[in-house]
Amino acid sequence: MTSPTCYVGISELFSGTGRAGTTRTEAVQRIANAAILVRGEQIEHVGPESEVRAACPADTRFVDMQGKTAIPGFVDPHIHLVWGGDRSGEFNRRLHGAGYVEIAAEGGGIKSTVRQTRAASADALATKARKTLDTMLLHGITTIEAKSGYGLDRATELKQLDVMDQLSAAHPIEMIQTFMGAHEVPPEYAGRPGDYIDMLNQELLPEVKERGTVTYVDIFCEKNVFELEDSRKHLQAALDHGFKIRLHADELFPLGGAGLAAELGAVSADHLVHASKEHQRAMAASGTIATLLPGTSFFLRAAYADAASFQEAGCTIALSTDYNPGSSHTISQALMMALGCMKMGMTFEQAFLAVTLNAAAAIEKADTHGTLEPGKQADIVFLDTPGAMHLVYYWGVNHVSDVVKAGRRVVTDRRLITT
Ligand SMILES: N=CN[C@@H](CCC(=O)O)C(=O)O
Ligand SMILES: [Zn+2]
User: Fold this and answer.
1) Concatenated DSSP letters of 240-261
2) pTM (two decimals)
3) ipTM > 0.90?
4) Exposed, middle or buried by CB within 10 Å (0-12, 13-18, 19+), for 119?
5) Of all atoms in ligand 1, which is nearest to the CA of residue 113?
6) Closest-CA residue to 216 (of 289, 141, 280, 295)
7) Which residues are listed for Fe(3+) binding in this entry (predicted)?
């Protein structure tokens, strides 16, 4: 058996507690002068340093973290990882006054990335996505949900999934895969979203299921994209094929996607800027996580979801960057916490749980991920700060200095360890 490692000299350990998503912000613990004992891939003990040292076996290797803060690795439960090209020109057009919907209607937006993703080789897509994963790891993200959805045809959707398989096997970041063939209506099916959904249901869902690597099916349930009936049809077909489901819901218009998510028992409904109170309550009753995406609101200069309203309705709230080339080109979960606190009325504790334990719940990993507790996977981020509060208090700065993923050190002193 491998010798355990004990991380000592931790000025503050800050973590949620428990094995399920929570609305209880008291579910955070703060331990001053802490230590963490790790054996193999798991945490064996956390607590005050003197207590943990007393529990360490004789062959323990001690690593002095020199006053850093320890938190669980960030989980990001909504990532558009694999895509080609660049939309900075479109972004500049928006700064000059063009609207996101206006650009999309002209064939830009998601469709522009689809063209560039179709044209790119799998190798080029993998190289670009690997760099993104490296940047995420350096910012403390240790687990993500990653979607296809910039192909919108069989070959390119499968190419995206192939790239995800390749990166999943090679990169320390743990990846849960989602098929999002229904991200937009492709040009070949313009004006015929129902026919496209039929094709996805009959041809692609069985083939994707066969791969065995994809957990979820997601859809952009939105006015003039996939409206409620097409969304219901696709999601029901996904459930029938044995997938779990998640939705982009009520982002730009109050269509009722949040209600559909609750009705069908979706694991998560995301965006939710325009979700009605009735649908928020329905989501709470169905246990559907509310994954809020403040980076998108920021980047589109749009309204923010009302976190207090979801909290009051009893929803478990997660936060995600929604990393993508058009509406939220960022990988910083710390920045999402800052936006959650400053723009959505969240407390620090709520925002912290939303990027750790509740984000893990949004990908059904809360029993093993998202907190620093005995028996959980040893996904640990060390911050070069006197406490976790600096994630928001000293905002816009990457404070991550060291990362341990599944018990293995993968970032040391802000540098990736490549093995
Ligand atoms: N809402 C739809 N999809 C993305 C936007 C993708 C894009 O603009 O490329 C989102 O999650 O925000
Ligand atoms: Zn998205």
Assistant:
1) HTT-EEEEEESSSS--SHHHHH
2) 0.98
3) yes
4) exposed
5) 9
6) 289
7) 78, 80, 248, 322
